[in-house]
Amino acid sequence: MTGKFSKQSSTMVDRIMDDSEEKQHKPAASVKNSLGMEFVLVPAGEIQVGLKGYEDRKMVHKVIVSKPFYLGKYLVTQKEWKNLMGTDPSCFEGDDRPVECVSWYDVQEFIAKLNKKEGNDKYRLPSAAEWEYACRAGTTTQYYFGDNESQLSKYAWYYENAGHKTHAVGLKEPNAWGLYDMHGNVWEWCRDRYHRRYKASQAAISLGTGFGSGLVLHGGSWVNYPGKCKSSYRSSFHPNYGYYSLGFRLFRSV
């Protein structure tokens, strides 16, 4: 009787330990850092990058996201930028508005300071493929909510509803993975250099080096018409310069 009880108890302990270990290795659905920035878990998977949108003649190709990552729930705000950098370069002032008028190099300085403050090397800009994958959230339509352009006002600040200015983050509807303002408000810097056409053989996330004709921008902004807010649409800008319709959100490794 005692032996049987001991065997059952041992099995139960093993099961509890297995469950505990699984929880320890399973990343949280969302996390916050020391600046109060929120990050949403983006699951591993694959995507046909460039699907449903050929404005820049890029090739459609498969990208494999081999492991999950975190992406900023919101665009980086002016409050977050000021708390770390001590200044605010933005043209449209407001703590909850996205920081803008920041160059790619300005953003790299922000990232370096944030990694130092957090004591890790988890933060960077997303690659263009990571950005599109996160924006789509499993969809294959023009926008993460579908193909109906007339619905865009529910999800984005763009030329027709923004009133020629940025707006506080998180006021529109998010995508299926809980990410806000992936369409509109401000363009978002990515870490890749811009190529007119993707390489057909590309089968994994590009981390891009060098600058070529500029760095990739995604998402569109308050100054753009719907076509440039599509999930697949890419633009580019010189890394030395900021602009009043250009901001960013951060990638954070798990």
TrEMBL record:
InterPro entries according to UniProt: CTDL_fold (IPR016187), Sulfatase_Mod_Factor_Kinase (IPR051043), SUMF_dom (IPR005532), SUMF_sf (IPR042095)
Molecular-function GO terms, alphabetical: formylglycine-generating oxidase activity
Comp. bias regions, Polar residues: 1-12
All residue ranges annotated as the Sulfatase-modifying factor enzyme-like domain in the record: 38-251
UniProt superkingdom: Archaea
Region Disordered: start-end pairs: 1-29
Compositional bias (Basic and acidic residues): 15-25
Pfam families: FGE-sulfatase (PF03781)
Protein name: Formylglycine-generating enzyme family protein
The species this protein was found in: Methanolobus zinderi
